[in-house]
Amino acid sequence: MKPLFYLLAGIVLSATVISCNNSSKNSGSNTIDKIVVHDNGVNIAYTDTGKNDTTLLFVHGWCINKSYWADQVTYFGKKYRVVAIDLPGFGESGKNRNQWNTLAFSHDVDSVIKQLDLKKVILVGHSMSGDVVLQAAVDNPQKVIGLVVVDIFKNVGKNQVQTAQAKKEYATAIDSLKHHFKQIAFEYFNQSLFYTTTTAAVKKRVLNDVAHVDTAIAAACMEDNNDFNEIAGLKAAKTKLYLINSDVEPTDTTHLAANKIPFKLLYIHATGHFPMIEKPQEFNTLLDKAITDIKTR
Q1: Angle 29-30-33 from CA coordinates, rounded to 5°
Q2: Pair type for strands 54-59 and 120-126
């Protein structure tokens, strides 16, 4: 079981129920979209910046959107082609479907790669989208040249097989999330995803996006994405994994090493779960190192 989901379950089981108010808010960039991209009739909003034969394709995490990569778009767009997308169900992308699992989201990434005719792609996935970009790498071996995940895979391979009791507790957690989304999600973010160095402005931004997300879709993401086998995916991808993780919580690479999966761990010091907006300059430096390593392999 992945830590993001495991921590959520623990918070839900002890949560106090309050009501929530749902609306919608989309964030994006002023970059002009040139091609309409869709996956089985679902529109995929994106920005496309810079020119290069190498493309950095950024995929956001749970309850947020492509605007969280704005600093990376500005910085890396001077050297590479940079595409940042809103996963369907979030930001400005469409919601007209019923599947919100890793395979569905990875197919969205496939569609972006194909319809924008991207050639040499470095996938960058934050949080929940670590699994998404991993599956997209498996599905596009001729086009994906690099795989970077952000503040996720901190104990990949651990507790991969869930007990019946764990599954029962998780189902209870998801049921509570569906009925009391805002209160539970806020507790989860405040207790597990922010650090003492996370600024009030960052907290306000993130929680505002959480408060205005489509709660049914957000809950479905949690419900449908709990059984993806990351070790099997990493073996199938046959590429080096780059992890840019906060050092607040140690990353256990035991199972990566045991399964002979090549990886490089790059720690960013003292941030919460959103290093790309908490310390963008330091994050960009680390991502630059990963990109250089990928391109010189």
Answers
A1: 90
A2: parallel
Q: Is there a contact between 126 and 112 (Cβ–Cβ < 8 Å)? A: no
- CATH number of the CATH domain containing 155: 3.40.50.1820
pLDDT tens sequence across 12-23:
444 433 333 333
pTM: 0.89
Residue span of the structural domain in which 17 resides: 3-295
| Residue (of 157, 177, 182, 138) closest to 259 by Cα position | 157
Q: How far apart are the first and last CA of the chain?
A: 32
How many domains, the chain? Answer: 1
CA distance 56 to 76: 8
Note the pLDDT tens digit of each residue in 162-221: 778 888 888 898 999 999 999 999 999 999 999 999 999 999 999 999 999 999 999 999
Map residue 268 onto helix, strand or coil. Answer: strand
Residue 225 φ/ψ, nearest 5 degrees: -115, 30
- Contact in structure between 48 and 116 (CB atoms under 8 Å): yes
Q: What tokens appear for 291 in the block?
A: 């990109």
Look at strands 241-246 and 144-150 and give their pairing. parallel
- Report yes or no: 150 and 275 within 8 Å, Cβ to Cβ: yes
What 3-state class would DSSP assign to 242? strand
Helix (H) or strand (E) holding 109: helix 102-115
| H or E segment to which residue 81 belongs | strand 81-85
The DSSP bridge partners found for residue 247 are none
